[in-house]
Write a structure and sequence with these properties.
The structure holds two protein chains of two kinds. Chain A is of the alpha/beta class. Chain A is built from 22 helices and eight strands. The longest helix of chain A has 25 residues, at 407-431. In chain B, 53% of the residues lie in helices and 14% in strands. Chain B is of the alpha/beta class. Chain B folds into two domains: 3-84 and 291-305, SRP54, nucleotide-binding domain (Four Helix Bundle (Hemerythrin (Met), subunit A), Up-down Bundle), CATH 1.20.120; 91-284, Rossmann fold, CATH 3.40.50. Chain B is built from 13 helices and eight strands. Chain B has helices at 3-10, 12-23, 30-42, 47-64, 69-81, 109-122, 139-150, 163-177, 194-210, 228-240, 257-266, 287-295, 298-305; strands at 97-102, 127-132, 154-156, 181-186, 215-222, 244-248, 270-274, 282-284. Classes of the chains: A alpha/beta, B alpha/beta. The interface between A and B is large, with 46 and 53 residues.
């Protein structure tokens, strides 16, 4: 997610951090690099200009340049600006309290991912205890209604369709249907359209005025280029949407065009969609995202993911692990957790410096590695798992044979276990500094240096 | 409406930006070069290419004594049109031919196939479509509608079936029934998904092995795509050894500058451009027209103003 932008920004900060003092020229060089990084990430060029100008202005002050840690101050300035660019605080859906059903309408260009987003949104709302109905309002793309119906079936959410009727009627009838069948929220999928297609834009406006949706959401492809700014501006004028769903943010999408949306229209990014599964729609947190882009990691995101995947037992385990160190059983359990949380890549990407590690690891780091480790651990005896220290050469050989792996791989796992235990100790030291606060920066720094990240 | 007009309509915004730059026609200054670079960035050419092109133009202007904006403009269009890789031969004119369409989700593969099928049928070719997107919900139904519109047969299997087996079936039918224009739709996938890319490799290699006619692989790319498009194309090219590009959705205001970068960097010709929703809205690509439309036509702009 935003990996190439992230990489470039971090490399330019790295250069800065090597200098004890910063001159105006240093700032200028760094800002030029930031400008290029943002442009390469498809951030709109006007937005880039403003962004860089603001950062430069704040960074070039006497206070920053003569401070003890000027490079960190610059990073902080960029972080603040980036957070601001992304919309400062998160914004969720707003529903009218006294209206049943609530109505959400989706708009966007063709191929931006509206139908998929509609289904994911329905799934999310259902998980939150709502009872959604999907309405198939795209009567133009061949088989669009079939697609929605198939996807709806997969997550057990009904789809309302009326082939042959016009989209305004379909939307209205869907709302009536929702009233009759006790659905409390209707999600209307509409046809993709280009912003210069007058008839289609009018249709979107008509659906809106006929159904008065609580929320109109625009689905924006994270791979969009510079033109997306024109697109959203026109959609904003015609449909006055309330928020954005950023789609296809998995892979290595740069997302820059979408990052400009907030700045240009003032409309918040509400959700990001990051995968093929129905559960891959997540609320968007500007501050966390800014930190991730600057390589500071999304620790809160990991905690939330862990909370979703973990039951109380695992929380107790976690405490025990912090106190007494890690057993092989813990490692096995964690592997399984990692799977539940969406695989190694996704999690690592959320760690400070994780994106960089992912890049270095390249293809090696896939979930296949998890399978191997699982096999090795499962070839250990109960005692070995509980006290991995007793695993000597003989035992390693036996474990290797039992799991069909090599002794080297067993050794590697042992080494990993040792390192994880060490990290555990560091983590303990950090978290016991101040609970719930930012981790102790000195300990954090040391830890990151040891991981070779700096 | 031809490519030129369609492009002109779609590219109005970028042309306005450039025309503003060029119209007043006086001597160029520092501001002019900076704005030129920005405008090129705006067309999704990418910051590096934009900087390179504008620097080149600057050198050229100095060397050849071009001082007015309008002189530089026509030189610019010329320069941009050189960025594109030339088409050696139109693969769709070959007879017989089998073409596989690949690309990320939502790039417009299915629609492109529908349009190509209709055009080929109208030219008297014996067309058959293969629905190897057995993954996305209703993808087969969508292609089926296009097949019906074009009046051509569709060979496919149920959703979830092995896409490579579909290709096998299609080629079987094509050989048996003497079809000479075979178009195969594949499931959209992100280039970062290794498993899906491997699956696609298999689909392509099965098709290449089975076919007795020439097989081509074409990447379909959305004109609204930004700089990510280049990596997409690189990855698809690495995995599948592409033969060409089709640029879709040029009917909005997106400029599709990324297509120029891809065509140039990967040495791939742009075979067609999609410029509308109608079944006939797929055109041959002309680099000069495209470049002209990007930078705008000064004469036209003058007329509009008068």
């Amino acid at each position: 997610m935003f990996s190439s932008l992230s990489e470039k920004l971090q490399s330019s900060f790295e250069k800065l951090s090597k200098k004890g003092r910063l001159t105006e020229e240093d700032i200028n060089v760094a800002m030029r690099e930031i400008r290029l990084a943002l442009l390469e990430a498809d951030v709109n060029y006007k937005v880039v200009k403003e962004f860089v100008a603001k950062c430069k202005e704040e960074a070039s002050t006497e206070e920053v340049l003569t401070s003890l840690t000027p490079s960190q101050n610059v990073v902080k300035i960029v972080l603040d600006q980036l957070t601001h660019l992304l919309g400062d605080t998160e914004q969720g859906l707003v529903f009218a309290q006294n209206r049943i059903p609530n109505v959400i309408m989706l708009v966007g260009l063709q191929g931006s991912g509206k139908t998929t987003a509609a289904v994911k949104l329905a799934y999310l709302l259902k998980k939150k205890g709502r009872n959604p109905l999907l309405a198939a309002g795209d009567i133009y793309r061949p088989a669009a209604a079939d697609q929605l119906e198939d996807l709806g079936k997969e997550i057990q959410i009904p789809v309302f369709r009326e082939d042959g009727k016009d989209p305004v009627e379909i939307a209205q009838d869907a709302i009536k249907e929702a009233v009759d069948t006790l659905h409390d929220v209707v999600i209307i999928d509409t046809a993709g359209r280009t912003q210069i297609d007058e008839a289609m834009m009018q249709e979107a406006a008509n659906i809106k005025s006929a159904t008065k949706p609580d929320q109109v959401l625009m689905v924006v492809d994270a791979m969009s280029g510079q033109d997306i700014v024109n697109v959203v501006t026109e959609f904003s004028n015609r449909t006055d949407f309330d928020g954005v769903i950023l789609s296809k943010l998995d892979g290595d999408a740069r997302g820059g065009g979408a990052l400009s949306v907030r700045q240009v229209t003032g409309k918040p990014i509400m959700f990001v969609s990051t995968g093929e599964k129905p559960s891959s729609l997540e609320p968007f947190y500007p501050d966390r995202m800014a930190k991730r882009i600057l390589g500071m990691g999304d620790v809160y995101g990991i905690i939330e993911k862990a909370q979703e995947a973990a039951d109380e037992q695992s929380l107790e385990d976690a405490e025990r692990m912090l106190e007494q160190g890690l057993t092989m059983d813990d490692m096995l359990k964690q592997l399984q957790q990692v799977r539940k949380m969406g695989g190694v890549g996704k999690l690592l990407g959320m760690l400070p410096g994780g994106a960089k590690m992912l890049k270095q690891a390249g293809d090696k780091l896939d979930d296949g590695a998890l399978d191997k480790i699982e096999a090795i651990i499962q070839s250990m005896t109960a005692q070995e798992r509980k006290r991995p220290k007793i695993i000597n050469g003989m035992r390693r050989k036996r474990i290797a044979e039992g799991s069909g792996r090599t002794v080297q791989e067993v050794n590697q796992l042992m080494k990993q276990w040792g390192e994880m235990n060490k990290m555990m100790g560091k983590f303990k030291a950090m978290t016991q500094g101040k609970k719930g606060r930012m981790p102790n920066p000195a300990a954090m720094k040391q830890m990151m240096e040891e991981m070779g990240l700096k | 409406m031809g490519l030129r007009d369609r492009l002109r309509r779609g590219l109005t915004k970028s042309r306005e930006a450039l025309n503003e730059l060029f119209y007043f026609g006086g001597e160029v200054d520092e501001d002019f070069w900076e704005q030129l670079e920005d405008t090129l960035v705006l067309s999704d050419l990418g910051a590096e290419v934009a900087a390179r092109v504008s620097d080149e133009m600057r050198d050229m202007a100095a060397k050849e004594g071009l001082t007015t904006a309008s002189q530089i403009k026509s030189a610019l269009a010329e320069r941009l049109s050189l960025v594109f890789t030339k088409t050696a031969e139109d693969i769709f004119a070959e007879n017989p031919v089998c073409v596989l369409f690949v690309g990320i989700n939502g790039s417009g593969k299915t629609t492109t196939i529908g349009k190509l099928a209709a055009a080929a049928k109208a030219h008297g070719r014996n067309v058959v479509l293969g629905g190897a997107d057995t993954f996305r919900a209703a993808a087969i139904e969508q292609l089926d509608v296009w097949a019906e519109r074009a009046g051509v047969p569709l060979i496919t299997r149920e959703r979830g079936a092995d896409p490579a087996s579909v290709c096998y079936d299609v080629l079987d039918v094509a050989e048996r029934e003497g079809k000479d224009f075979v178009l195969i739709d594949t499931a959209g996938r992100l280039h970062t998904s290794d498993d899906l890319m491997r699956e696609l490799q298999k689909v392509v290699s099965v098709t290449r092995k089975r076919a007795t006619m020439p097989v081509y692989v074409v990447l379909v790319i959305d004109a609204t795509t930004g700089q990510n498009g280049l990596i997409q194309a690189q990855e698809f090219n690495r995995a599948l050894d592409l033969d060409g590009l089709i640029l879709t959705k040029l009917d909005g205001s997106a400029k599709g500058g990324i297509a120029a970068t891809i065509s140039h960097d990967l040495n791939l010709p742009i075979l067609r451009v999609g410029i509308g929703e109608g079944i006939s809205d797929l055109e041959h690509f002309d680099a000069k027209d495209f470049a002209d439309a990007l930078v705008g036509d000064l004469q036209e702009q003058k007329r509009e103003q008068e």
